[in-house]
């Protein structure tokens, strides 16, 4: 099997994921997973598709992350890994879909409108 690549997105984050057979190493922007995401919850989020399909030790994963914040980046990486696993083996798709890893979360930040302090917030009304 050669290298399989896929893209995952969430909010403003984009993850380009490259999966190849290996020992289970995950590298993000040339850093190990534990260095890039020091909080264990985000490490768990990135590994979720591998844990659900019992493939934690089967693949080496390289991820290029760009944009967004820490949570968006972790969830973008999760979507990218899930898509790559489906490309490798189509029988994993129902398991990943049931756990919600195949759906791209479409929610984005609403733009700020002119004449307002935020997207929805208005300036305080003054009667006099």
From TrEMBL:
PROSITE patterns: RIBOSOMAL_S9
Coiled coil: none
Biased composition (Basic and acidic residues): 104-113
Superkingdom classification of source: Bacteria
Biased composition (Basic residues): 119-128
Disordered as annotated region, ranges: 99-128
Alphabetical keyword list: Ribonucleoprotein, Ribosomal protein
Family: Belongs to the universal ribosomal protein uS9 family.
Family annotation (NCBIfam families): PRK00132.1
Protein name per its UniProtKB record: Small ribosomal subunit protein uS9
UniProt source species: Alistipes hominis
Encoding gene, per UniProt annotation: rpsI
């Amino acid at each position: 099997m050669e290298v399989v690549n896929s893209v995952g997105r969430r909010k403003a984050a984009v993850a380009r994921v490259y999966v190849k057979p290996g020992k289970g190493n995950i590298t993000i922007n040339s850093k190990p997973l534990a260095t890039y995401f020091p909080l264990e919850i985000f490490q768990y989020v990135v590994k979720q598709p591998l844990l659900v399909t019992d493939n934690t030790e089967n693949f080496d994963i390289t991820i290029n992350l760009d944009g967004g914040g820490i949570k968006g980046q972790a969830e973008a990486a999760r979507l990218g890994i899930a898509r790559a696993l489906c490309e490798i083996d189509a029988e994993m798709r129902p398991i990943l879909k049931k756990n919600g890893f195949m759906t791209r979360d479409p929610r984005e930040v609403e733009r700020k409108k002119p004449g307002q302090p935020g997207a929805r917030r208005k300036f305080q009304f003054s009667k006099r």
